[in-house]
Amino acid sequence: MRTISQQELYSAVADLVIKANFNLPDHVYQALCTMHATEQKPLAKETIHILIQNTRIAAQKHIPLCQDCGAVIVFLQIGTGVIIDGNPIDVIHNAVADTYKKYYLRPSIVQDPLFERKNTGTNTPAFVHTDIVPGNSVTITVYLKGGGSENMTSLKMFTPTAKIEEIIDYIVTAVQQAGPNPCPPLFLGIGIGGTADVAMLNAKKAVLQKEPHPQKEYRALEEEILQRCNQTGIGPLGFGGTHTVGIVRIKEAPTHIATLPVALNLNCHSLRYRSIVI
């Protein structure tokens, strides 16, 4: 049985928070570059150019990609052959709080959601999701989700008789209704199946997948949704153009015979996350 120390976990989470705030993942940056190269409308092309410049400045000057430094979502995949010394949740919260303070990252978390809504001042608590997996390592993913795009989150409970076209129409309509609010071009994560809560969580996991779906039917569905969303003409930051959505990813799960939940996670053009295996 392997033991991971509190310090090792703390250092890993702190490093991921820093990298996620200041540097886009390579495939996200390349997606922006591809959209810029293929965009036909001058204003949309210039808008994407500015977004690319923003990513370069953030990396070079070590400043946040966005003034909304996000809610910190942490995915832990803990191997069955691993013991984490101490309470990993406390370690994660401490790492997040210390890093946000050290680098002057905007704290955006309020303690009570309905009444006082007082800012905790630390951007904690982080929202931690844990899976137990085979092996003797821990995979940590830190995902920063801004409030503007999170407000556009959507869930619909279809019946099992729903046609795929109905699901596509629902997603395209949700993107149209969101308009410029989630700061397109968007990265879409779609959770299909499971229960309502599982579908919503899978929508967040889906957007972090670098590669298209390995199954051809779902891969074709990802491409169809991408094309249909880009036909809306919303374009970068809502100024019109070819590229409303850059990437679509789907994560499915087994579900009840009477249900077909579909969850949609719209992420802004700044898809900020980092992962490490320790």
Tell me the number of strands. Answer: 10
- Major sheet characteristics: 4 strands, mixed
Radius of gyration computed on alpha carbons: 19 Å
Helix content: 25-40%
Strand content: 15-25%
- List unreliable stretches of 5+ residues: none
- Shape summary: globular
**DSSP helix count?**
8
Main β-sheet, spatial strand arrangement: 4-2-5-10
Distance between the termini: 14 Å
Task: Give the domain tally.
Answer: 2
User: What number is the mean pLDDT?
Assistant: 97
Task: Write the H/E string, N to C.
Answer: EHHHEEHEEHEHEHHEEE
Structural class: alpha/beta
Reconstruct the topology from this structure:
Layout: E1 2-4, H1 6-22, H2 26-38, H3 42-61, E2 71-79, E3 82-84, H4 88-102, E4 127-133, E5 138-145, H5 147-150, E6 154-158, H6 164-178, E7 186-194, H7 196-207, H8 216-230, E8 245-255, E9 260-267, E10 272-277
Parallel strand pairs: 1-3, 2-4, 7-8
Antiparallel strand pairs: 2-5, 5-10, 6-9, 7-9
